[in-house]
Amino acid sequence: MTIDSSGPILFPQGFLWGAATAAYQIEGAAAEDGRGPSIWDVFSHTPGKTRNGETGDRACDHYHRLEEDLDLIAGLVPHYRFSVSWTRILPDGTGVINQKGVDFYNRLIDGLIARGVTPWVTMYHWDLPQALHDKGGWTSRESVAWFDHYAQTLLKLFSDRVKNWIIINEPSTQTFLGYGIGVHAPGLRGEADYAAATHHMNLAIGSAYRLAKAYDRGLNVGSSYVLMPVFAAEDGGDSGSVAILDALWNRNHYDPLFTGTYPEATRAAFAPFILEGDAEKLNTALDFVGIQHYSPAYARRDENGLFGINFGQGPDTFEKTDIGWPIDPPAFHGALMDQVARYGDHRMIITENGIALFDRMEAGKVNDTRRIGYYRQYLAQVHRAIADGARIDGYFVWSLLDNYEWSEGYSMRFGLVYVDYETCIRTAKDSYRWYAQTVRNNGLTQTQKDAA
Ligand code: GAL
């Protein structure tokens, strides 16, 4: 069960192999079949907010290329994680259900199951209905009730076939970038909005978990979080700035989840939003914790930054992805083991990990050897963490397809499948064939098929 630099990657029997996407990043058809606007539609259409003004209006046109994408998924993995666009189901956030949106997800879910692929549904991947944002969005405590209603709607519609649920994707990315510093939707800034949105999302996770388990105890319900190890930056970092950046990206979510409290470094900001009884609502034993990791971060002091900190420079020694993120696989192992040390034994699933490269098609092929190398190294660290006692039951690559990378537009390619954004033609990269083979070496595609 070891991984060397060239041999096969073998994980324990039953390990879950998957690939992930998110609705706004791939679907397109933004104004079709009754879908209502989300905060990402409004934000991406606001001049100056995204690279080259790019939007998810068409994205990968997945909405119209469903059959082709289903075949690509089935050729790759036995588990597929996607998110539901809240406004395709409930265009105003609450109220009347849009049947055409339901039909689309039924086609997707049924198409996966027919191909022997298990669906994993993310309820919320950052695309809050604009109609709810207009009423305060996540900064309002009412958001917890809106989310409950939405979660209940999804469970009623799909949980006869969908048994694996991820409640919210990376709350800290949305609260830091979208409510703290304003570079993601909805573009708010400041510590109060940051803390309000963070607290309400944390409450929504606990609430939706209890609701889902009351609905059907047999469902497998978790939520996905950033796990970003933070170190002191070379340009003005110290232990205090590390504690704050670590709180903003990691601890302000894991601490309430596991202990019901917020960490010391930013605790004061939450006080105005905490009501009696919240600690019990936050503290939730999810069926699994989804872990999402890309790279470490380096914290520095910055008096103009949120809570007086910012991202700073790391050491030059690490290789970097094409978009400049440091590649430090052992730091991922360290972060996983640190989670176990802090919070005790719990079930984890890696629900995202991946690398952006400036891939190029040459003679009909995309030779992304560096992506394969990245995955080999990161899988080796996951494997090592399992051997060291971390309970990690699965791994999903980010992402199936190149897609709309939020405010970075289409510049960052994370896919195992290349997408030509002019024609929307898909081409499997070398990494796609490598990952499919890795999955087959672990025997799971066949196992899934046998079980189906
Ligand atoms: C995550 C996010 C994904 C994707 C990925 C790559 O934070 O959940 O939607 O954008 O990062 O940057």
CATH level 4 superfamily: Glycosidases
Order of helices and strands: EHHHEHHEHHEHHEEHHHEEEHEHEEEHH
What's the number of structural domains?
A: 1
Mean pLDDT: 96
Bin the strand percentage.
5-15%
Heterogens: beta-D-galactopyranose
Uncertain residue ranges: none
CATH arch. level architecture: Alpha-Beta Barrel
**Helix content bin:** 25-40%
CATH class wording: Alpha Beta
Number of helices: 16
Largest sheet: 8 strands, parallel, barrel
Structural class: alpha/beta
The total beta strand count reads: 13
What's the N-to-C terminus distance?
27 Å
Radius of gyration using CA atoms only = 21 Å
Read across the widest sheet, the strand sequence of neighbours is 1-2-3-4-5-7-10-11
Described by the principal axes of the CA atoms, the overall outline is: globular
- Briefly note the CATH topology name: TIM Barrel
